[in-house]
Amino acid sequence: QVQLVESGGGLVQAGGSLRLSCAASGRTFSRYPMGWFRQAPGKEREFVAVVTWSGGSTYYADSVKGRFTISRDNAKNTLYLQMNSLKPEDTAVYYCAAATSILSGYSTYVGEYDYWGQGTQVTVSS
């Protein structure tokens, strides 16, 4: 099993920065991609960013490209999301997720991720 716990969310003014962390625990032999998703009130959960197990490949949603950076430290079993130049529209609950069933590459689809954290709130004020 895989347990994921996000941290680092909070309240920040527009233009500010936050770094989210996702600590993974549990035993697994899978080399799976991990991603960040977010969900604002009244909206569906949407893809933000994903990184492969090796960290060599990343993919971002157009809305965050150039502002957010995803990375992972496999030695620490930790996933990160560095968020810069935050905008009010970035306000959402941010979730980290693992796609343990993906054998190669990565996915941007919510349905392809089978383990999720509890989420951490990010609020960006105007």
What is the structure about, briefly put?
This protein is an all-beta fold and 126 residues long. Helices cover 0% and strands 47% of the residues.
Description:
The chain has no helices and 11 strands. It is mainly β and 126 residues long. The strands form 2 sheets. Strands 2, 4, 5, 6, 9, 10 and 11 form a 7-stranded mixed beta sheet that branches. A 4-stranded antiparallel beta sheet has the order 1-3-8-7, with no helix packed on it.
Main features:
single chain, 126 residues, mainly beta, 7-stranded mixed beta sheet, 4-stranded antiparallel beta sheet, 11 strands, 0% helix, globular
Structural class: mainly beta
Poorly predicted spans: none
The percent range for helix content is under 10%
Question: What is the general shape?
Answer: globular
Number of helices: 0
Strand content: over 45%
Order of helices and strands: EEEEEEEEEEE
Radius of gyration equals: 14 Å
Total number of β-strand segments?
Answer: 11
Distance between the first and last residues' Cα = 40 Å
Q: Please, what is the average pLDDT?
A: 93
Largest sheet: 7 strands, mixed
What's the layout of helices and strands?
Layout: E1 3-7, E2 10-13, E3 18-25, E4 34-39, E5 46-51, E6 58-60, E7 68-73, E8 78-83, E9 92-98, E10 115-116, E11 120-125
Parallel strand pairs: 2-11
Antiparallel strand pairs: 1-3, 3-8, 4-5, 4-9, 5-6, 7-8, 9-10, 9-11
